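[Meeting: bench + compute handoff]

Bench side (C.D.) handed over the final construct sequence. Compute side (W.E.) agreed to return the predicted structure before the next meeting so the bench team could plan truncations. Sequence as handed over:
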Amino acid sequence: MKLYTFFRSSAAYRVRIALNLKGLDYEPVPVHLSRGGGEQLAPAYRALNPQSLVPVLQDGKHVLAQSLAIMEYLEEVHPLPPLLPKTPAARARVRALALAVACDLHPLNNLRVLNYLSGPMGLGDDAKRTWYHHWIALGLGALEARLAADGETGSFCHGDAPGFADCCLVPQLANAYRFKCDVSPYPTLLKIEKNCQALEAFQRAAPDEQPDAE
């Protein structure tokens, strides 16, 4: 398997965690999202993924895009250890938590959105930082409220084993730290993150551990 990745991409970070949790070997293929105007915009990469986004997972003849779709594929093809719980309701709960990050929070703060704010929209660094902090606080605050009040929350987002939601939460918190967001209002998220970061699968997936880290 090949994973087209960028060390700071939180979407690629999710998939790296999932691959590590499942004990799967893969070859990382770095795609720098800003060097030379963005290597993801090169024709060869666009042929792999017309959206010009990372990650892309190449598994034999299969070329897969979108981090959560890749994680679902890995869950189906390599079901052990599972990253989704057994019952339909529990699986829906975990997917909802993962989607709250991947679909509602992260897209408002990813690189191409921030570049558009500072480029065509003409926003300065302070205004861009205000945008970022607003959406982080809204998204992480909702996750904190949901997880803190739910008896199905355990050492991890769901029970006492890491899964899809944790794969999404940890990279989003990493982004929050990078942009100097105040995360002190989210003790439940921080507890879960601490438990995740104690695991080798999360440690090896971290941005600073990647071959393309700067």
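W.E. noted at the follow-up: The mean pLDDT is 96. C.D. will use this when planning the next construct.
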